[in-house]
Amino acid sequence: MLQAYVPxxxxxxxAGAFALFSVAAAPYIGPRRYNKAKLDAYECGIxxxxxxIVGGGRMPVAYYLTAMLFILFDIEMVFLYPxxxxxxxxxxxxxxxxxxxxxxxxxxxxxxxxxGGLDWN
Amino acid sequence: MKTTAExxxxxxxxxxxxxxxxxxxxxxxMTLFMxxxxxxxxxxMQHRPGPNxxxxxxxxxxxxxxxxxxxxEDIRPVVADKWVYFLAPIISAIPAxxxxxxxxxxxxxxxxxxxxALQLVDLPVGVLVILACSSLGVYGIVLSGxxxxxxxxxxxxxxxxxxxxxxxxxxxxxxVGVILRxxxxxxxxxxxxxxxxxxxxxxxxxxxxxxxxxxxETNRAPxxxxxxxxxxxxxxxxxxxSLKFALFFLAEYVNMVVVxxxxxxxxxxxxxxPWPLSAIDGGVLNTGWWPILWFVGKxxxxxxxxxxxxxxxxxxxxxxxxxxxxxxxxxxSLVWIVLIAASNALWNTxxxxxxxxxxxxxxxxxxxxVFALLLPDKRVADDEEFVPVTGSGYPLPPLDLSVPKSPPxxxxxxxxxxxxxxxEPAAVAAADKETGDGxx
Lengths: 121, 440
Prior knowledge:
The structure holds two protein chains of two kinds.
Chain A: H1 6-29, H2 62-85, H3 87-114
Chain B: H1 4-9, H2 13-45, H3 61-70, H4 82-98, E1 106-111, E2 114-118, H5 126-148, H6 151-182, H7 187-193, H8 199-202, H9 204-217, H10 229-232, H11 242-267, H12 275-278, H13 290-312, H14 318-348, H15 354-374, H16 425-437
Antiparallel strand pairs in B: 1-2
Membrane topology (chain A): Multi-pass membrane protein
Catalytic activity (chain A): a quinone + NADH + 5 H(+)(in) = a quinol + NAD(+) + 4 H(+)(out)
Protein name (chain A): NADH-quinone oxidoreductase subunit A
């Protein structure tokens, strides 16, 4: 069964080798001329704004919210896929179950919508 | 008659290697060609020729650009995280190529004396592999922005991540509609299931949702907010130069080709010939090597639409963009999935006559209409005296001022008398301009 994945691994190896080679070879092919300003963070020519040593600056909290909503709906999607594959075998029972499931998630969705979780500002 | 999966399982290793190299070459060549095509087509749309110097019709322009990039200095900012900065382009390039592995390019052919299918692997979870690869590509973008240690790339990468995961949901939900019809996640099965009719006709809503979300997913115009040049310099790859930058570029274009190929596979019948051609001689054009032609043709149709969109539409605002994804595409696909599942179940229930099915559908449509009518209209500001203020308390001028009607255009006399032409040439030009501006 896992035999079927061998070509996938081969493609992974080829793409990986190509990418690794490109990234590793870049410093040796190109020229190297030292300039302090060149190694600064690029901010259109002004002095770069101070950043924490690791991990960049602060970011809007809305991104975290989007990430959590993504997990909610992505898991919903994960449940829909197996249902879609075997929908015919499940028949009416499956239909009722999935309608209930979508309705349940729909409540969460309506709640998030009402609370403004889907608005971006 | 063996299935595609069995055919591929019989491949010797050397044949797999040939296919791997061919797929890789396809990705790279398509990228080079796409960059050229995009620049030429957008050029034509903007009334300029586009690159036409290097090679015939400028075809070698992107190759020359790639070589030029290789000979540029490789810069790493001092604040950058060394290893993550190094790994990010690799992480974004590999999944882009990997997604090609499950795309069926054609049916079974004889290749070097060996009977096989024009597909690298036919996994029972084919569509999931593509979704997984597109999700993994986000890591490259996020890590590149994070590792650069610079505000613009960080903002660009965050935007990109939020955008890709938002549209990933719409995309995944639109694919559920396809799977409800094909009952299989394997891409070759999905193509085979479209023998009777392409899903583009059967599932128009899924197709539209997929088509919109594939543009959002690949960060292309009009959804190219992560690299909005006027706001974020270059987005997540601002700090990258040389071949590392080239890898991001490569990944972006390969991703475009992948989503287009997936759209072809899911909705346009994959490698199947379009209708009048498919009827010729009992479907001879659906066998042998012909299907590659149809497949690449359909893929190019989508790629052209990508370029067309870029030439036509302005960039969306970020909140508009997120609203489209979360408030339009997601609920529409959810309702559509339930509808498709209901119609499937109804059709497959024994002992129900067609008349009863139609009555069921009529009731369903009436319920939907009533529900739509009951939804409240958009709230309008009923307080006429209300004056909006900005954050600092300054009254905001009304933003819906109508443009006053332009005055009627005055024509210059057709042939002014030579005696009356005592104005300086500059004054004449100014007068011309004045009348010209009369009509907006």
